[in-house]
Structure formats: structure tokens, C-alpha cells
Amino acid sequence: MTTTQPNASFAPGASLDLGLQLATKRKSQLRLIGERFLRNKVSVFGLCVLIIIALGVILAPVLAPGTKTYDPTTTPDLAIRFQGPTLHHLLGADYIGRDEFARLLYGGRVSMEVGFAVAIISVIIGVVVGAVAGFYGGWVDTIMMRITDALLSVPLLLILIVLSKSFGNGKISDVVIIISAFEWLILARIVRGEFLALKEREFLLAARTLGASNVRLMFRHILPNAIGPIVVGGTLAVGDAILIESTLSFFGFGINPPTPSWGNMVNDAQGFLSSDALLAVLPGLAILVTVLCVNLMGDGLRDSLDPYMTQR
Amino acid sequence: MVAETPADTNKVLEVKNLKVYFKTRAGPVHAVEGVSFSLEKGESLGIVGESGSGKSVTSLAVLRLLPMPPAEIVDGEVFFNGRDLVDLSEGEMRKVRGGQIAMIFQDPMTSLNPVLTIERQLTEPLELHLGLTGSEARSRARELLEAVGIPEAPRRLKSYPHQFSGGMRQRVMIAIAIAANPQLLIADEPTTALDVTVQAQILELIARLRRDLGTSVILITHDLGVVAGVTDRIIVMYAGQIAETAPTGELFANPRHPYTLGLLGSVPRLDKTGEGDLTTIPGAPPDQLHPLEGCPFQPRCPFVLDKCSTYPPRAQVGPNHYSACWVDVTDPAEQERASARGFIPLREIGRSDYVAGETPSSVSNS
Amino acid sequence: MEAPAAQPFAVSTSNALVRIEDLVMHFPITSGIVIQRQVGAVRAVDGVTLEIPRGQTLGLVGESGSGKSTIGRAIVRLYKPTSGAMYVADTDMARVQGRQLRDMRRRVQMVFQDPYASLNPRFTIGSLVAEPMHIHKTGTKEQIIQRTEELMDKVGLRREFIDRYPHEFSGGQRQRIAIARAISTEPEFIIADEPVSALDVSIRAQILNLMSRLQHEMGLTYLFISHDLSVVRHFAQRIAVMYLGKIMEISDREDLYSNPLHPYTAALLSAVPIPNPRIEQHRKRIILGGDPPSPVNIPSGCRFHTRCPLAQQICREVEPPLEDKTGGKHFAACHFADRVGSLARTGSVQGLGNMEALPEVAERHVEHPAQA
After folding, report:
1. Predicted model pTM
2. CA-to-CA distance for C282 and B36, rounded, in angstroms?
3. A3 to chain B, closest Cα gap in Å
4. Cβ-Cβ contacts under 8 Å, C344 against chain B
5. CA dihedral in degrees (B159, B162, B164, B167; nearest 10)?
6. DSSP state of A85
7. Of C229, C266, C365, which has the smallest distance from its Cβ to B270's Cβ?
8. Which strands form C246-252's sheet, in the order they lie side by side?
9. Which of A105, A244, A291, B278 has the smallest C-beta neighbourhood within 10 Å, fewest atoms?
10. Alpha-carbon dihedral of residues A90, A92, A96, A97, nearest 10 degrees?
């Protein structure tokens, strides 16, 4: 270690930097980010729970194999209506005798697909639009922001219901598109605000004087600095989309029955809240846990992307 | 409760072995590590140091203006007129602050309240500390503004801070500071944020304040030039400790601590043309989170010895001149040894005029 | 805008790398929400002509609001100048666009004042230094990495730091990173905008020495912008003093410091503290009254007359041209350049109040608990 051997001098040109002594091995960016993420226990917990849920819904056919001759998610069996948990039906059956456990798993497929698809689409559109609006400003910005203002000022649910009534036919892709059409607005506003603030920073002026093109400035220089709010916005979008889908389903405009989603399961159960609360509580809990875990994970992801959190 | 010392009546302020730590997640930052000094009536003291040397923390600790936590006065006593400020209640401390001790800061905008008129901010300490009535305070406020050279004082009293320029704001700060006849003014980098011509105005004002009102002044700065003209004595701080202290003339003529030598050599001089390189102090400022064993300057010091790993005692090297260094830097043998590590004596780099003291003709005066 | 002073540098030396001719940079002030009208202009740079010989350093000195930084930023085209020309190696930076502008940005680099703000916090040191080489595609990935490491050696940074982030470094080290980045494309001309003002005293010298070593090694030409006359004196061979968007005086270093011909220069020089108490005690200061006027309302005539201790009627009416005063290379814009010497000898204090005149005030019912 060089600290113990002072080779200091007042000589002209002597310019040894003795500040940071501990040399570390080179680590890739990804590895650093991964290490920082793993330090955040709560986020890791969220991620684990999410992985378990995801595995569950992916492995649904294995975990809830077709009982006897029918597809447990859609085929009713009136004989077991409102049955409580049994060995055969782990979480019992619903009001027309469909296996609740199987429906939760298959319904999770829909909800999570909707949630993540909407988040990814909204983040991509939102980042591009927000970046252009924030970076260039001027009329591009004015037009884009007035459109988003207009859209945001109308009650969202009302439009969604009208849209899904007119265009949707209950397919997952339709629901995703309809929800994304609104969700990206929020992302675009977030990104625009960040870009607007960051483009005036001195390091951006510096990058400009280096000759960086506008695209490079936007996506290589500014975007990494805006990643925190974008990740947060994206994770919120996952939760939002799952909840909106539930709400749409609740009003009967989401995924068409008999395909289960957590949303329409809650909806179906509403008539039996007093007698069989479990039918509503279970899918409701699934939504809650998933959204919560996504948010926990998002927090950790944001922190791990922040170089200031590095500990050496 | 009030600690009494057999007060030397001439001593306005006496700081004994002050230690201030900041608690952080990574451990305590040793901001001030045992600082002692005193200040006499009407004296002007300069505290010089770089960022992180603890010079500002020292003064803030004297006034108990540090946020606690994270800061903590771990040890030490601060006697003001024989009274230990560390033990005062917050209420009593408030009377001292702005009353007997006033302080001005680097950025006057942050120390002025943006929504109150200058008049309100000036009259408040007058009513609070001097017990003046409203109208007395208002006329005194006008006199104060005139005293610091703000034209059209009656009109300017009704203005808000943002309507003043940086230099004018600093004058207002000085007016507020002297409003209650303080015995001690602490000025923390009062001119760093200002332009050179405005800096000259403010320094001249501070000098007059002392001359005309007899106020003791502590001037905290990173700029050796600023303290050269307006102080009687200088403390050079490094890593939370006092490296060297001496009367101003003596410090410049006969610097005894290697850090002081390095500082003097590395400052570009208005009265010297740059031929060749400046001497430098290599390396980076100390990390007070992980303070070194012994002398904090050793990794950057060309005079370094084995025994520097124990902290050197404060040695008297001249009248009123103390240096915390094991090495006698004036000893030719030591200089020889240090020059092997790149040390260049000031005289060889054309900076020895501290001794000669002639006025270089290139400075366009006299 | 007034007519430019008769070309002071008509005798264009052939070795000038940078020539700025009558540069004007006005920022419009608009008001109105829907229909924006221009209601005025910040006249940040108001007609500046100067040139810098290849391999030399011009120091540009002025206080805040003098427009010195605006000139630097205009040359690298962070702003589009209102009018005037800025030649760097015979290419007019005021007019280049697109590919040509990007190519010029390889040859003209800038170092900013605050290394805490001018380095992207999300970039590692290696990617910061390599960025210009990636932008201008100066080599393969491996070549760029190798060159990055060489550059880090050159500016005195350890190679191990290549994967660290700027926030892990002190100000001086950050400024080294910024300098390594600036020289990575082997530019000819570097604009250094207050490169050491944000640094600690002991670190300043390191950076200044590094910059002058690089100048010798690479034959760099610098525009060194600073408010600090001591630093400029050390670093620049020729010095221009700006006030409110115009050059007041421009001269070789020795001449300017020993024989200022503009009262503003004299005031600036006298205001800089010298770290030598023996000199300080006997210096005669020229203390100017008040603060610099706003560049929105530039005074008529000579723009310095509102603070000038030598001002006469003519100064309020006629703007003095920047003209050669010594038959050499010493230009000043002052009607009374011949009186500046005696002003510097006698000193002058304006606009300070009188503390002696401050009446004593009696203290009332205020207890002083410790006085017992």
C-alpha cells in the first residue's frame, strides 16, 4: 500500500494521487448493479416472491393438472359448488364448482401478462415521446403535452370502458393495448420533466461540446440519469395495469369469461362476499401481493442503478 | 452551571481543545480534532485552511450553530468573556448570537430572509438585543446602512434582499452583524462568492469595523492573500488540527510548517510572473472519516520522518509562533533531505520576498 | 450596436490559430405568454475582437456578468452568435453546421469550471474519457480502451480508477478527468472556463502545472477564462480584460500588470490581495463604488464611467475605442489612459460609508449574565 511510503514532494509536475488507495478488480457494470441490488434485502424478498408467483402461473398445468376429464378452470362441476379447501381442491371451488386454485394460477397468467406487457409498452412509448418533448421543447413539446393534458383530464375509467365496449372483444392483447394507450401518458410526463431539468445541466453542455449527436445526448447521456423515475414509473405501471384490468373485469369489460383473470375472479365473487369471502379475498390478495412486490423490486432496481449507492 | 475562569480580561474568546465529530453511517468524521486558540479584545485573527480543514466547523461550533446530530462537540470548552458557551442553554445562546457575537457567511442570500424587508431584518436585533423602541430602531437602521456605504438608505430600507446585488447584500449582512455592537465578528469566507472589486470593498469595510468600532474579528478563508492584509495573527488549519499559528508578518516571513510552506509555494501571485511551474502539494486533501495515525500531513509531506506517525507536539518556534511539526524546516540539512523528495525552498522559486519584504515594482503602486 | 472600433488587429499575424472578429452575443428578453415580444436584450458580448497565436495562452479576465464565459461558450457553439466571426484555423465557428461543426468540435475542446457538474454522474471514468473518441470514432474499441489508459497516465490518474464513478473523486481528480477527456481527440484549441476556481488552493497548482505541461507536449492553444488575476498572470502570455461585454484592455502580460492603461484594470489589480503582509500594508487600493451595472442596461458612452474614478463628461457621451496606446501591442479603451498611472499610485476609495460617524447607542434593559 502506498500510504505507508510517502513519496510526496513539492516538485513541479509531481502529481501522484494518493486519495483512493484501494485498488479493486474490474467488475462489469452489470455485476456492480447486481451486487448493489442484492444488498437490498427487501427488494430481493419482493423479487423472490414475484419469481414464485411467476413460476406458479407458468407451471399452472403441472401444479393444477386437469382433474379427471375436464379443464378445471373453465368446466364447472356443480357437485362441488362452494366447496371448502380439500386435498383434491386445495383452495376449494367457486360458485359454479370450478377449482379455485387452478383459476388463481391461470388467472395470474392473464393479470401478469397484462401488467408487464402494459408496463413495457408504456415505458417504451413514454420514454421516446417524453424524451423528444423534453429535449427539443418548443412546439413539439407544446403539442405533445397538450394532447396528454387533454387525455389525462378525461376520467380514465369512463374512456376505458367505452373503448373496450367498442373495440375490445375480451382478448388479452386488446386489453393490453387499451390500457397502454393511457398508461404511457404518465410515463411520458415523468420522462419529459426529467429531460427538461437534465438538459440544462453542465455535464450535458460538456457532452454537447464534445460533438455528441442529439440522439446520443438523449439516450446515452440523459436517459441513464433519468432511470430512477422511469423505473419507478414502470413498476407503478405494472400495478396500475393489473388494477385497471381488474376494474374493467369487475365491470365486465375486461377479459371475457370463462377465461379467468384475478380481476374477473373478484368480480364473480362479489355476490358471495358474506357467505364465501375467500373467493374474493384470494384473487384480491394475489393482486395486492404482486403489485407490492413489483414496487419493492422497483425501488431496489432504482437504487442499484444509482452509482452513488456503490460501496467499496 | 456557568463555568468561571479567572478571566484574563483582555481575552474575548478562548477555545480549549475543541473536538467536533460528525456522525455518519460509515463512522464518525473527525471534523475538528482538538483545536485551542484565544482572541484578544480588538484583535483580528485569520483562520486559513482548505475545504475539510475544519475551519468553518470550528467557528460554527463556537456559536453552536451546527446541526446536532449529526454534529457533536465531543470535547472542549469555549469561553466567551469567561463564560463557557458549550454549557449555555439554547435561550441564553440566542442572546449571545447576534448580540455579543455576530457572524457573516459566504452567501448572504441564504442568511437573509427573502420575504422580510431589509428594515425589518435590521431592526429586529436592535429591538431584541439593545431594547430599542420601534422608531429608535428604524433611525438606527438607517445610520447602519449609511455606515456600510449603502446609498439612498431610507429608500433601500424598504427593499427586499433579492433587490440587492451580491456585494450590497454582504454589506447589509455586515450592517445587521454590527447592529447590536458585538464584541466579536466571525466572518466565514465573506468574500468568496464576490467579485474581486467587490471583495476589496467588503474587506475594507471589515478593516474599518475593527478600527472604528474596536470589534474583534475572526476571518475564515482559504485565501492567504485575504488574511495577509487585514489580520494580526493567523492560524493555519489542516485536517481539523492547527498546523501552525503565528503573527501575520511572522507567518509569511518565516513559515515553519511544511504545509504552510506548500501553501505559500502553490499560490499564483499577482506580483510574480509565472516562469515555469508552480510548486505543488501532491496528493489529495485528507479523508477525515479515516484519520491517519500521527501527523495528518505525512502522506503529502516532503520532510516526513518515521516519528511522524506519532502526532508532533505544539512547539514554540518563535515569539507567539507555534508549529506542530517534528522537523525544523529551516535546518539546511533537513532541507537537503527534503529536496531529495522534490522540496524546493521558497527562495529558489522566487517566492522568498516574504523575508526581503520589498515591494515589487510590478505591483502598480507606491 | 455601435460600429466596431477600427480593426485593432488588422495586422493579422499569420500564426494566429484563433481570430474572433466583432463577436456580438445578445440574449433576447421576451415577455408575453402566447405572443412573445422581445422587450430587451442581455448584451452579454457586445463586440469583441481578439486573436490567439498558435501554442499560446490568452487570459480572459473579468468579473461575473462581463461576458467572458459567454465568449467561450459561443466559440464551441453552445450559443449561436448574434453576429461576428470566430475563426479557428480559418474555419468560422459562427457559421459551421452539421458534420463540419462536429468535426470542429473534435479540434476545439472545453474544460468547465465545476468538475462536480461537468462530469456525467452515471458514467464511469473510463467511459467519460473515452466518450469523445467514441463520438468521433477514432479507433476500434480496443484502441480506445488502450488510449483511455494512456490518457489517464498522462493526467496523473491511476489506471485502476477506470471503472469508478466521478463522485468517488475529489475536485482535483475530477478536473484531471475532464482534462483527459478534453485532450482525448488531440484538439488544437482548448477553452478553459475557470478551470481551477472550484478547487482547493493546494490542488490548483497541480492542475495549472498539468495544463501547462500538456500545452508544451501537445502544442495546445488555450483561451484561459478566469476572474483570478493572479492565476491568469501565472498562466497566460497575453491578457484581455473584459467589462460588461467589451474588452477594456488587452496587452502582453508584463505590460498589463506593470503599466495598466485602463482604470478598470488598475482597480482590478489593486483589489487582488497579495499573500504578503508587508506589501499589503502599504498598498494603495482603488476601491470602486457600487457594483457592475446590469448587461441589460449598459451605460451610455464608456460603459465603465458609472464606477470610474477618472470619469469626465466626455466619458458619459463618447465611447472610447479600443486603440493602441503605446505603439506596440498594448490596447486600451479609455479617454484618459495617460492618467491611469497616477491613479494607481494614489489609490482611490469610493462608496464606502463612514463607521466613525456611527453614533454610539446606549444599551437598555439587556442583561449580560456573564459580566458578573
Report:
1. 0.79
2. 32
3. 6
4. 364-365
5. 140
6. -
7. C229
8. C108-111, C189-193, C221-226, C57-61, C238-243, C246-252, C331-332, C323-324
9. A291
10. 50
